[in-house]
Design brief:
Blueprint (H helix, E strand, L loop, with lengths): L1 E2 L16 E2 L9 E8 L5 E7 L5 E4 L1 E3 L15 H8 L1 E8 L7 E8 L2 E2 L3 E4 L2 E4 L13 E4 L3 E10 L5 E6 L10 E4 L9 H4 L5 E8 L4 E5 L5 E5 L6 E11 L8 E5 L2 H12 L13 E3 L6 H13 L6 E4 L41 H10 L3 E6 L11 H12 L5 E3 L5 E3 L18 H9 L2 H5 L5 E4 L10 E2 L6 H4 L3 H15 L7 E2 L11 E3 L7 H16 L5 E4 L10 H11 L4 E4 L15 H8 L4 H29 L4 E3 L1 H4 L12 E3 L3 E3 L9 E6 L3 E4 L5 E3 L2 E6 L7 E4 L3 H4 L7
Parallel strand pairs: 21-22, 21-31, 22-23, 23-26, 28-29, 29-30, 30-31
Antiparallel strand pairs: 1-3, 2-3, 3-7, 4-5, 4-8, 6-7, 8-9, 8-10, 11-12, 12-13, 13-19, 14-16, 15-18, 16-17, 17-20, 18-19, 24-25, 24-27, 32-33, 33-34, 34-39, 35-38, 36-37, 36-39
Length: about 725
Amino acid sequence: MIRHRPGGSGHPYSVDTEQRDPVIPVQGEPLVLGVFATNDVTEVSLELSIDGAPPRALALERSERRSRGQVIDGGHLASAQARLARASGGWSITLLDLEAGATLRYRFTSDGGSTRWFWVRVAGWRPTVAIPGAAIAGTGAVLDDGERIHRVRFALELAAGEKVVGFGERFDQLDQRGLTLDSMVFEQYKSQGAERKTYMPMPFAHVVGGAGWGFHVRTSRRVWFDVGASVSDQLVIEVEVDAESAATDLVDLALYRGRPRGVLDSFLSEVGRPEELPDWVFRLWGSGNEWNTQAEVMRQIEAHREHDIPVGTVVIEAWSDESTFHTWRDAQYEVREDGRPACLADFTFPPDGAWPDPKGMIDELHERDVRLVLWQIPLQKMRPHPKGQAKADADAAVRAEAVIRETSPDGSLRPYRNRGWWFPLGLMPDLTDERAARWWTERRRYLVEEMGVDGFKTDGGEHAWGHDLVYRDGKSGGEKNNTFPVAYAAAYGDLMRSVGKPPVTFSRAGFTGSQAHGTFWAGDENSTWEAFRWSLTAGLTASASGILYWGWDVAGFSGDIPSAELYLRSIAAGAFVPIMQYHSEFNHHRKPSRDRTPWNIAARTSNDRVLPVTRRFAHIRERLVPYLAQESRAAILAGEPLMRPLFFDDAEDERIWEHPHQWRLGRDLLVAPVVTEGESERMLLLPEGRWVDAFTGERLRGGSEVVRATDWDEIPVYVREEAWEGLRSVFDRG
């Protein structure tokens, strides 16, 4: 058997063996055509016709098998996929000297069968004046195949000294000048800063310097940015489009003039402002993937009380049956063959099950002033083959036409099967469609309406891969995939509102428009100092892009536990970002535990400072909640971040770029955490004005760099002198 898929899996950063690369052939560039073949295939040929000429046969050569980034980026494929890769191989051929406008018609033949015929037109770059008025004259070009335009490229001028910051959540550094990047929602499992990929991109940025300005490419399609990397004084923007060759209205570019506050306010006026959430979201969030029974959850909540570490929210990830994702594990019920939503009365919970009384557990959490957030995934699991309610739900989703579709080999449409690594081949509801979103969330309604769940962790919004996807409104994956995580959070927020609850969601993926939908965390990361710095950078760039409620897994969530030093430095920093939460990856309950609870870190590191220092910062955080709530309301009204990079207030001071891990928290706090192992002093920039050291009460005049000795039980935090009397009690040791 042989297989050719022109667009491959849709992985945005990897080329699959059976793919056409590039998908749109370009004059002057080599074109690689590949096939996947089973082991019984010994030879493969290409039959190729150009512009209607008789086909000619060309032999393919064996090539390395690649699937969804397995070879290129080490993606975490399931073991079954890895076995498949080892049992099969790739074949490919490279074509050269193709002319723009030529039509290629081709198929593959082998001793194991043949493929259907495929066709594609070769595109070429040509100059155009159909570019935004602000673009540099002569920089406009379109990638045109004679019938359709696939990309448009132009450049904006960058002045000497201007910095370019934003582009959504970026982990590597604040200023992207001198670098290239793009805007594709992608699940980069760990090492986001090194890989320079992100869960939450946006084609928006601030240009800081001089009078200041910013821009937004108004598109949901992929955009590439060359930020002075090729030409130092040019920002080159290349936008994916799908337009007729005669089209002239190709790119909608918004330019905002002014300082960062005005730029962000204008951007939020277009894409949506954050919605005020209840004060409890600012309290400590606790979570661990091994908190997967009612007994364990309540044991952990009781441990918080015993150790005097106040917690406001518990997130339970491993609560469901892992097949329907709306039913508690071990619950007993009759299968609803029509796939209708359940109500609480449909279930019984055996006393010896994982969750013998989940409603009682939720009630007890509420009595303890703790809220509950439950994990979700926007997929209908299909492997292993579903049975029972999971099968009934899958069948009902297809009947209701509530799923995203894809183009099958014969050109017809069929349900899209997840091409990502997590829950491979699962069905994916079209949450961008109001009716389909309501169909999906109604199956979760009883959790909120009858059981009292307070929010949802809307995880895994990155699984829409490929231009060939077709959404319910008829639009393609190229246009809609980036918007999926925005709609995902919005759909669950609408469910919460429908029962009179605030729309609390907790997402890692997002795009333009996510600003209006819930809270966010920075995704999966190791417990390393480097990852700590990457995460703080992600928070500052996300905030600069309008994300107000942001946090990260304090001290990391994956791999071995952090050192006591890293844990406490992270806890200190986490107390001064909008969302403070710790979380840990599932480790199959192996011993010793990898939970990131302070008592486990204290026991594992044998460090007697972990618990008292964590306790101190947890209580500071608890006392800080009224300030955070007040400042979040002010930030929403003003269209500015709650966690502000220094350039929002001090753009004229070039020294701010030497202090990338400092920020303002609201109007009155300056935060400068220690982010380097072994450091006992912190050099920081104290902006103009009069400040009070929050931990010593020392009064200082700003406008200079200062060095502060910083033990593990402190963090450099400074309060504007005018606000000190109102905030002094937050930092009391009592």
